[in-house]
């Protein structure tokens, strides 16, 4: 018997369901909404371990991006990059369709990639690949030119030491907090309860029987199917999954009205990224590549080397000559693995995993949730 749960709480939140979704992030909530569209009579519950979604969905930078040229060059070494970019691009389209641009505060500002003068060799390589990736992505984005040389625009941003600037005209930005708040409210409106502080301790999936989800508060839920949508935390419940955590650290400055950084910006093969927020603050994150081993953790926290790297980048490149106060610092945890595509597969009888977005959760989340809902509604 669960500790101190009332009859009403058992009936409303922990009664048997058709689908129990573990994780109230972008994948879990979009899957719940898509499931209710397909199976409106199904009982669906979304279980969240924290007071708010605990991974990256409320802690990301709000980039509606699908890959800079330097990132795509590296990713192409790992396999066919076109279907992966297609999944990211269509995932963003699904997110915008499901939530709406106004609710997302989606802004089609484009995405820039910066190269400092000392990175001229990489800049030349990326410039030489513009036509190649434009041709490769034309069937995906429906336009002939995704990338272009935007170096003449570099001067208007006031960056320090930047020699080359490439632009992806198909990218944009959004408000991650408003995105998640909208998804949460729509889940409740669709009669999908999303109880917080409901950490799952175990999933028991005997063949031919309902799946039992055991919670840390002592409650259990019987479900016809379970969707594991915890991304980087997936191996806590299913240790065999090929998912490893990657912590991303972020800072946000005081308002800087004099800065005019319209767009989203990528640097250092996409491992660093920044943008100016609507209240004129600058958000800057990244640095995971300084020490991959140290950042392969689900433990939130900040490290001195990464914070120093971000601060130096802020002072020397983003707003050279300024030393703005930093008002916010945090970290979020992403899920990575050996393949670029997410894991969307049955991993136990009645248990589907939809995890491992490889740092592209905003782009892949809604598409992953949609695919998971399709598979579960047809099972």
Keywords:
alpha+beta, 379 residues, 12 helices, eight-stranded mixed sheet
Fold and architecture overview:
It is a single chain. By secondary structure, the chain is of the alpha+beta class. Helix content is 34%, strand content 25%. The chain is built from twelve helices and 17 strands. The chain has helices at residues 7-13, 26-38, 69-76, 81-99, 101-104, 120-128, 130-141, 154-157, 176-189, 292-295, 304-318, 361-378, and strands spanning 17-22, 44-47, 63-64, 111-116, 147-149, 162-168, 172-173, 200-204, 211-215, 220-228, 244-253, 264-267, 272-276, 282-286, 326-336, 343-348, 351-355. The strands form three sheets. It has an eight-stranded mixed sheet, with helices on both faces. Helix 2 runs parallel beside helix 9, helix 4 crosses helix 7 and helix 4 (81-99) packs across helix 12. The protein is globular and about 65 Å long. The model has no long low-confidence stretch (mean pLDDT 95).
Itemize the secondary structure elements and their pairings.
Elements: H1 7-13, E1 17-22, H2 26-38, E2 44-47, E3 63-64, H3 69-76, H4 81-99, H5 101-104, E4 111-116, H6 120-128, H7 130-141, E5 147-149, H8 154-157, E6 162-168, E7 172-173, H9 176-189, E8 200-204, E9 211-215, E10 220-228, E11 244-253, E12 264-267, E13 272-276, E14 282-286, H10 292-295, H11 304-318, E15 326-336, E16 343-348, E17 351-355, H12 361-378
Parallel strand pairs: 1-2, 1-10, 4-12, 10-17
Antiparallel strand pairs: 3-7, 4-6, 5-6, 8-9, 9-10, 11-14, 11-15, 12-13, 13-14, 16-17
Helix pairs in contact: 2-9, 2-12, 4-7, 4-12
């Amino acid at each position: 018997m669960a500790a101190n749960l009332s009859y009403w709480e058992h009936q409303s939140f922990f009664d048997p369901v058709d689908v129990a979704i573990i994780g109230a992030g972008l994948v879990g909530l979009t899957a719940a909404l898509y499931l209710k569209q397909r199976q409106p009579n199904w009982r669906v519950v979304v279980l969240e371990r924290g007071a708010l979604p605990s991974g990256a969905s409320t802690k990301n930078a709000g980039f509606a991006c699908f890959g800079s040229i330097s990132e795509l060059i590296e990713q192409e070494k790992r396999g066919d990059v076109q279907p992966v970019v297609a999944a990211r691009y269509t995932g963003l389209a699904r997110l915008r369709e499901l939530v709406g641009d106004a609710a997302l505060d989606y802004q089609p500002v484009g995405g820039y990639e910066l190269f400092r003068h000392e990175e001229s060799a990489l800049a030349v390589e990326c410039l030489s690949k513009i036509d190649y990736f434009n041709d490769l992505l034309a069937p995906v984005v429906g336009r002939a030119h995704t990338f272009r040389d935007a170096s003449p625009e570099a001067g208007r941003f006031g960056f320090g030491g930047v020699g080359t600037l490439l632009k992806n005209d198909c990218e944009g930005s959004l408000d991650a907090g408003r995105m998640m708040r909208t998804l949460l409210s729509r889940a409740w409106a669709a009669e999908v309860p999303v109880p917080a502080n409901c950490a799952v301790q175990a999933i028991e999936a005997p063949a031919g029987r309902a799946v039992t989800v055991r919670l840390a508060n002592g409650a259990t839920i019987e479900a016809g199917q379970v969707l594991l949508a915890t991304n980087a935390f997936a191996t806590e419940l299913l240790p065999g999954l090929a998912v490893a955590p990657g912590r991303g650290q972020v800072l946000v400055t005081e308002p800087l009205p004099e800065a005019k950084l319209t767009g989203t910006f990528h640097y250092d093969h996409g491992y660093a990224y920044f943008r100016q927020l609507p209240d004129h603050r600058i958000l800057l994150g990244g640095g995971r590549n300084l020490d991959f081993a140290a950042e392969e953790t689900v433990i939130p926290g900040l490290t001195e080397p990464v914070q120093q790297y971000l601060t130096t980048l802020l002072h020397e490149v983003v707003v050279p000559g300024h030393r703005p106060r930093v008002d916010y610092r945090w970290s979020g945890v992403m899920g990575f693995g050996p393949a670029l595509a997410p894991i969307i597969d049955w991993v136990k009888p009645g248990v589907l995993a939809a995890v491992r977005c490889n740092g592209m959760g905003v782009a892949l989340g809604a598409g992953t949730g949609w695919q998971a809902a399709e598979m579960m509604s047809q099972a």
